[in-house]
Amino acid sequence: MTLKAIIFDVDGTLAETEEAHRIAFNEEFAAQGLPWEWDRALYKELLRVTGGKERIRHFIEEYKPPKGEEALARIPEIHKAKSERYMRMIADGAVPLRPGVERLIREAKEAGLKVGIATTTSTPNVDVLIRATLGRPAAEVFDAMACGEEVTAKKPAPDLYELALEKLGVAHNEAVAIEDSRNGLLSALRAGVPVIITLSGYTADEDFADALSVVSHLGEPDKPYEHIHGFGWAQSMVTPQMLARMIEGWAGRPSRPVPPPGLGA
Ligand code: XBP
Ligand code: MG
């Protein structure tokens, strides 16, 4: 099977955006008179729940903070205002793309591959990041985007990757996913898409044993990645050629690979 597409996660993978999300959540909690402060240690725990609205609900239900009950009905409104704060930060250039992201997108296009997005965050959040960093609308850069608001089950469910494959018009074993979290890894694997992990701030210590490869970042000519696990030990950058070779190995599997034990169907 030949490689036809690369599917990128957004938060933590295209850019280290989670600190901007965390700050936006906290600013909005304060603006709404909610005495909540998500510090880094707590946010790391909360990131196990993907999606901002789902994360706030989980926080209220599991941590039972003051004013939690009364805020339950306002989650959509809190999250909308948080997203506006986040987008203002990103539009101001607060967060750059990670090493190798722009290069790999360019090389993929030059090699005739499609590039897509599978993210639990929303389409406007992706668009503002891409406009701020690449100076173009996300819809011009990516052939297809599958974003959080389009599915009911976010990562680690396979829905976002299945949607991205459908929109790109490629089979699961013709694509590779670039991810930074265990939830993202599980989502892609459950859709049958093999995964390369680039380690990011909040999720670097998660279990990535089932990834085809784990590297510190995608690498640049003057900034080689650190190889952690799997394919790519002899390289210094993730390239379309390296991904194509990885896919050849993966394609020897059944048409829809059975996920390794513990990953569910
Ligand atoms: C990251 C997430 C998101 C962000 C917040 O997922 O879980 O929920 O933390 O974004 P991914 P929203 O890495 O798959 O993009 O508040 O817009 O949900
Ligand atoms: Mg991510």
Explain what this protein looks like in three dimensions.
- β4, α10 and β5 form a beta-alpha-beta unit.
- α1 packs across α5, α3 crosses α5 and α5 packs parallel to α7.
- A seven-stranded mixed sheet has the order 3-2-1-4-5-6-7.
- The protein is built from eleven helices and seven strands.
- The longest helix has 17 residues.
- The chain has two domains: 166 residues, HAD superfamily/HAD-like (Rossmann fold, 3-Layer(aba) Sandwich), CATH 3.40.50; 74 residues, DNA polymerase, domain 1.
- It is 42% helix and 11% strand.
- It is α/β, with parallel strands linked by helices.
- Bound molecules: xylulose-1,5-bisphosphate (XBP) and magnesium ion.
- Xylulose-1,5-bisphosphate binds next to α1.
- Magnesium ion binds next to loops.
**What is the number of strand segments?**
7
Distance between the termini: 23 Å
Percentage of β-strand residues: 5-15%
What composes the largest sheet? 7 strands, mixed
CATH topology grouping of the largest domain: Rossmann fold
User: What form results from the Cα inertia axes?
Assistant: globular
Helix content range:
40-55%
Order of helices and strands: EHHHHHHEHHEHEHEEEH
The first-level CATH class name of the largest domain? Alpha Beta
Give the name of the CATH architecture of the largest domain.
Answer: 3-Layer(aba) Sandwich
Indicate how many domains the architecture comprises: 2
Ligand species: xylulose-1,5-bisphosphate, magnesium ion
Secondary-structure content class: alpha/beta
As laid out across the biggest beta sheet, the strand order is 3-2-1-4-5-6-7
**Number of helical elements:** 11
Outline the low-pLDDT stretches.
254-258
Arithmetic mean of pLDDT = 94
CATH superfamily of the largest domain: HAD superfamily/HAD-like
Radius of gyration (Å)? 18 Å
